[in-house]
Design goal:
The chain has 136 residues and is of the alpha+beta class. 34% of the residues lie in helices and 29% in strands. A 6-stranded antiparallel beta sheet has the order 1-2-3-4-6-5, covered by helices on one side.
């Protein structure tokens, strides 16, 4: 496991193994970083849930043997931008219209974020979301 701690610019980046344990660790470390930034209460809960859902998706749908996933958060004045990058660029996230045994993750991200999307990388993709720190 390799990770970097926060810098004075309000950025946090870490790389974790693409496993369920890695996804769980991503959420736990994101919660600690949000606390260190002074983000608490509902906004912290929302950002932590977005990290958890995107990390879970990166592990379940973006897994490539031997490749990690990356979590990046950037704190702005009124938002936290969350980015999860994985190695499977051909597997794009699509929210389920009527989830059955799963598929709620992107619906939660849509409900908690002011915006979200996908951008290509040289290897893989990055799914990003902007979580507000104030009421919507």
């Amino acid at each position: 496991m390799t990770y970097e701690t926060a810098t004075p610019t309000g950025e946090f980046t870490l790389r974790l193994s693409a496993t369920r344990r890695g996804a769980r660790l991503a959420r736990l470390l994101a919660v600690q970083q949000l606390h260190d930034w002074g983000v608490t209460g509902g906004p912290a809960d929302s950002a932590a849930l977005v990290v958890a859902e995107l990390a879970n998706n990166a592990v379940r749908h973006g897994w490539v043997p031997g490749r990690d996933f990356e979590v990046r958060m950037e704190r702005g004045d009124d938002h936290v931008r969350v980015e999860l990058s994985d190695a499977r660029g051909e597997r794009r996230p699509v929210p389920a219209r009527e989830p059955d045994e799963g598929g709620y993750g992107l619906l939660l991200v849509t409900a908690l974020a002011t915006a979200w999307g996908v951008k290509d990388r040289s290897v893989g993709k990055t799914v990003w979301a902007t979580v507000p720190l104030t009421g919507r």
